[in-house]
Design brief:
mainly alpha; 12 helices; single chain
Length: 264
C-alpha cells in the first residue's frame, strides 16, 4: 500500500477499470514497467567502465565532469557519457523519448492532484454537488493552479541534493502518512482518526523540518519519516478510543459470522 495504493497517479488507472478483473490486468501491465529499472544498474556499469577502463579513456568522461559544479558531477556522469557515445540521430530520438515521458508523467500528475483537490477537499465542504459542466470547469481551473504552483516551485527551488534524495524526501511528505493510514486501516482494527491525523502531520512536517534545519541527510530524513509515521499512528490509536467500525461492510465482504457458518 505504501508504494501502490497510496499514490493517486497510479491508482487513477485502477479506479477507472470496469471490473476487478480489469483492475488486476491494469496493475499487472503497470508493474511490468518496473522491469525497466534494471536499466539503471546497466547504466551504472557503463559509467564505471568509462571511468576506469583504459580502453575507454579516449571518451574523457572524468575530464568533462570535472569542469562542472561539484554538487552535480555524479548526476551528470550518465548524460555526458550518452552524449559521447550516441550518434546525432539516436541522441535526438532519445531526447524526444525523454521529453515525451516527461510530458506524459507531468500531465497525469497535474490532472490527478487537481482531481484530489476537487473531490477530496472542495466537494466535502459543499452541501450539494456541482452540475457536470461546472464540475469540469472547476477541475480545469484547479489543473491550471496546480501547474502554476509546479512552475513557481521549479523556478524558486534550488536543489542541493541528488535527484534520488529529493524524490525520497519529497515523496515521504505524502507517502509516509497516506501509506500508513491505508495499510493500518486495512489490516488493523484498532486504528483511530487521531492516529491517522498524527501520521499525516508527522509525515508532512518531518521532511520539511529536516530540509530547513538539516538534522539528517535527505536519505536519512526520508527513512526516518517512513518509520515515524506508523509509530505515531500506533501510539495515538492505542491512547484514544476506538469506535466500532464495520470493516467488512467497507470492503464489501459478508459479515464474519456468515463466513463462519458457511464454512461449517
Amino acid at each position: 500500500p505504501f508504494s501502490v495504493a497510496a499514490w493517486p497517479t497510479g491508482m487513477n488507472k485502477v479506479m477507472a477499470a470496469n471490473s476487478p478483473k480489469d483492475a488486476r490486468l491494469i496493475m499487472l501491465f503497470k508493474n511490468m514497467r518496473l522491469l525497466s529499472w534494471a536499466g539503471i544498474a546497466y547504466a551504472g556499469f557503463a559509467v564505471i567502465a568509462a571511468l576506469n577502463l583504459p580502453e575507454l579513456s579516449h571518451l574523457g568522461l572524468a575530464e568533462a565532469v570535472s569542469q562542472l559544479d561539484p554538487s552535480v558531477q555524479n548526476q551528470m556522469l550518465g548524460p555526458i557519457l550518452l552524449s559521447k557515445v550516441l550518434p546525432v540521430g539516436i541522441m535526438g530520438l532519445m531526447f524526444a523519448g525523454m521529453m515525451s515521458a516527461f510530458i506524459s508523467t507531468n500531465d497525469s500528475y497535474m490532472l490527478t492532484w487537481a482531481n484530489v483537490i476537487v473531490q477530496d477537499i472542495i466537494y466535502p465542504l459543499r452541501k450539494n454537488p456541482l452540475p457536470r459542466k461546472q464540475h469540469l470547469w472547476l477541475l480545469k481551473i484547479t489543473v491550471l493552479l496546480v501547474g502554476a504552483v509546479i512552475f513557481a516551485f521549479g523556478v524558486l527551488y534550488k536543489p542541493t541534493e541528488t535527484i534520488w534524495e529529493f524524490q525520497l524526501l519529497s515523496g515521504a511528505i505524502y507517502m509516509s502518512g497516506a501509506g500508513t493510514i491505508i495499510t493500518f486501516a486495512l489490516y488493523w482494527r484498532r486504528g483511530t482518526k487521531y492516529g491517522a491525523y498524527g501520521a499525516l502531520i508527522v509525515g508532512a512536517s518531518l521532511p520539511i523540518l529536516n530540509r530547513i534545519f538539516g538534522f539528517a541527510s535527505s536519505f536519512g530524513g526520508g527513512i526516518m519519516t517512513f518509520l515515524a509515521a506508523p509509530t505515531v499512528f500506533v501510539v495515538l490509536s492505542l491512547l484514544t478510543k476506538n469506535p466500532h467500525f464495520d470493516l467488512e461492510k467497507m470492503l464489501n465482504r459478508p459479515p464474519r459470522e456468515k463466513n463462519i457458518k458457511s464454512k461449517s
